[in-house]
Amino acid sequence: MIFSEILIFWYNKNKRELPWRNTKNPYFIWLSEIMLQQTRVAQGMSYYLKFTENYPTISHLANASETEVLKMWQGLGYYSRARNLHHTAKYISHELNGKFPSTFKEIIALKGIGDYTASAIASICFDEPTAVVDGNVYRVLARYFGIETPINSTAGIKEFKELAQSLLDKTQPGTFNQAIMDFGAIVCKPQNPLCDGCPFSESCVALQRNLTKDLPLKEQKIKVKKRYFNYLVVITDDDKTILTQRNDKGIWQGLYQFPLIETNKSVNEKELISSKEFIDLLPEETTISLFNPKEIIHKLSHQHLYTHFWIVETSSNQHAKILWKTIQNFPVPVLIANFLAQFELKK
């Protein structure tokens, strides 16, 4: 049997039962693929079900506000996915009369959709023979064929795409693509792959050469940057606080946060309250206390945030306009959501 036949035979016996497997509606396939980027199925499932319940069509998603969409997305991370999803839903609804494009070329032109997602939608929904290449596919192919080209290099991206395309069963491309993704998630796992029961074990190069733990290869990662965040959790006598929306192009664009003072190192109370940012924001008399003596280290892909939350009590402040009881209505980064949960417990 050839590679695709073995793979599809395995898939038909072992495939995961997932809600988006029972449809060829491109909206649902698109939503599932965007959600599962950087997210495990177990975590993404509840979000998918919640989204499809609240936004059952592209039109429903397009008519929602960005704040509503970000709040619904809260906790999944990589929020640019949600913003792009919302932008593209509005484009399809308003510019394409609600009709989802049906070819790879048209789909990949949509904002927030790359080669992998376009290939998945085109093959699963429209039977276009274009292969997907995601982390699972890289791992399966690198191990089975013993490929040592780094998967995050220009040469590697080209090599693996061409190889996946050559292996694709063009008579059932959607099934093949789902099969190789499931195989990577269930059998050819990053850690502790199930080599003993693998249908490819006798011909897998990595297994024969004891390279399973080494493949796939990646080029050296970008150096992680350290940042020091000091959030000022303002509480006035009439139970109001300050929340501002992040509008820059950095992390958490569109989400809300407490006033932030970023420093080049960890600072103490004296250093914080003597800073120009603190004085400008809070010129009135305040009482300040540190909520978390031990810094919270929040790890993102290329940066680690060393974070302190400072509780700042004051009689009033001209910027404090948000009632504390409404704070849960705002989409916030998970770092702040976790703080709010802990803070409420201690109140």
From TrEMBL:
The molecular function terms in GO held by this entry are: 4 iron, 4 sulfur cluster binding; 8-oxo-7,8-dihydroguanine DNA N-glycosylase activity; adenine/guanine mispair binding; metal ion binding; oxidized purine DNA binding; purine-specific mismatch base pair DNA N-glycosylase activity
The biological process GO terms on file are:
base-excision repair; mismatch repair
Q: Which Pfam families match?
A: HHH (PF00633), HhH-GPD (PF00730), NUDIX_4 (PF14815)
Tell me yes or no: is DNA repair among this UniProt entry's keywords: yes
Q: Does the record carry S-adenosyl-L-methionine as a key word? A: no
Catalysed reaction, written as an equation: Hydrolyzes free adenine bases from 7,8-dihydro-8-oxoguanine:adenine mismatched double-stranded DNA, leaving an apurinic site
Q: Which residues form the HhH-GPD domain?
A: 35-186
Q: Which SMART domains match?
A: ENDO3c
EC number(s) reported in the record: 3.2.2.31
What keywords appear on the UniProt entry? 4Fe-4S, DNA damage, DNA repair, Glycosidase, Hydrolase, Iron, Iron-sulfur, Metal-binding
What InterPro entries does the record tag this protein with? Answer: A/G_AdeGlyc_MutY (IPR005760), DNA_glycosylase (IPR011257), Endouclease-III_FeS-bd_BS (IPR004035), HhH-GPD_domain (IPR003265), HhH_base_excis_C (IPR023170), HhH_motif (IPR000445), MIG/MutY (IPR044298), MutY_C (IPR029119)
Top EC category: hydrolase
- Biological function: Adenine glycosylase active on G-A mispairs. MutY also corrects error-prone DNA synthesis past GO lesions which are due to the oxidatively damaged form of guanine: 7,8-dihydro-8-oxoguanine (8-oxo-dGTP).
> Protein name, please?
Adenine DNA glycosylase
Source taxonomy lineage? Bacteria, Pseudomonadati, Bacteroidota, Flavobacteriia, Flavobacteriales
